[in-house]
TrEMBL record:
InterPro entries: PatA-like_N. It holds the Pfam family DUF4388. This is PatA-like N-terminal domain-containing protein. Residues 154-176 are annotated as: Disordered. It comes from the Bacteria. It comes from Paractinoplanes aksuensis. Residues 18-128 form the PatA-like N-terminal domain.
């Protein structure tokens, strides 16, 4: 896809507007491969597309979590939007590892979504992802920088030299 094409520009424009107005909800991206960007207070909290592995795929494929364990956690936490909290509560994964895997899933999914030849977008206010809130739902710098990369375009460095994005704060106070 050519950077700055109408489909990509529409996605970038919509993300910019949602970020500036600190909206929470899901930005559904049509086309092929299609996917969803979940925002909390204008920041990307999670992203998914069939074209890249999600959190569960990453955990199971790496051998970090057995497929049956993942399915049980997903079944228990999906409807209540608390799969992330269950992963932490049960000790299936640590906070830092979860943070890094979520950031990787966001980066890969947003990259794939920008490759769509046609990408109609539709925002659904208030729609949440099954991962659930992660310490207030703020992924911090990585989610924000991903949104900035989408606005700026491919191949441009958006972080000042020598400043790496910090991983999200993944505390799990208040878990069952």
């Amino acid at each position: 896809m050519i950077p700055g094409s109408p489909a990509t520009a529409g996605l970038r424009r919509q993300l910019t507007e949602l970020g500036e107005t600190t909206r929470t909800g899901a930005l559904h991206v049509g086309g092929s491969p299609g996917g969803v960007l979940y925002l909390v207070a204008g920041r990307i909290a999670y992203a998914e597309t069939p074209a890249s592995p999600g959190l569960g795929d990453r955990l199971v494929a790496s051998g970090r979590i057995a497929a049956a364990t993942w399915q049980a956690l997903l079944a228990e936490g999906r409807g209540a939007h608390r799969v992330g909290r269950l992963l932490l509560r049960d000790g299936a994964i640590g906070r830092n590892e979860l943070a890094l895997r979520v950031v990787a899933a966001i980066a890969d999914a947003t990259h794939e979504l920008l490759q769509s030849a046609e990408a109609p977008v539709r925002f659904v206010p208030g729609e949440r992802h099954w991962l659930g809130p992660v310490d207030g739902g703020d992924l911090g710098a990585p989610g924000h920088l991903t949104a900035r990369r989408l606005r700026v375009g491919p191949g441009r460095n958006v972080a000042p030299a020598g400043h790496a994005p910090r991983p999200p704060n993944m505390t799990h106070s208040g878990c069952d």
